[in-house]
Amino acid sequence: EGDGVKIDHAKALFWLKKAADQGDTNAMNNLAIMYSEGDGVKKNITLAKKYFKQACSLGSAKSCDNYNSLK
Questions:
Q1: Other Cβ atoms closer than 10 A to 20
Q2: What distance in Å separates the CA atoms of residue 58 and residue 42, rounded to the nearest whole number?
Q3: 33 phi, psi to nearest 5 deg
Q4: CB 42 within 8 A of CB 64
Q5: What Cα–Cα distance (Å) separates residue 33 from each residue in 7, 63, 66?
Q6: Burial tier of 7 (Cβ tally within 10 Å: 0-12, 13-18, 19+)
Q7: Could you read off the pLDDT tens digit of each residue along the chain, which spans 71 residues?
Q8: How far apart are CA 35 and CA 41, in angstroms?
Q9: Residue 10, SS3 per DSSP
């Protein structure tokens, strides 16, 4: 959210993708939110669903809820 620092969506995207690639479900969920809302990235519901579904399959209940809310 940029608390205390300048918001840098490109860096956020970079680090979230890196963490998501290593199986971090919170990163997957946050990436999906970025894509679903177009926050710092071009809105992409397909990618949002991909990351929500991936995190859901790894046991993230909030990602399951978020995925189901996009349908």
A1: 20
A2: 26
A3: -65, -45
A4: no
A5: 16, 10, 9
A6: exposed
A7: 667 888 899 999 999 999 999 999 999 999 999 999 999 999 999 999 999 999 999 999 999 999 999 97
A8: 6
A9: helix
Handedness of CA 15, 18, 22, 27 (dihedral sign): positive
Q: Specify the residue for token string 């679903």.
A: 36
Would you report the helix, strand and coil content of the chain in percent, each value rounded to 5?
70, 0, 30
State which amino acid sits at residue 15. Answer: W
> How far apart are the C-alpha atoms of 70 and 67, rounded to whole Å?
5
> Contact at 8 Å (CB) between 28 and 60?
yes
The pLDDT score that the predictor gives to residue 20 is: 98
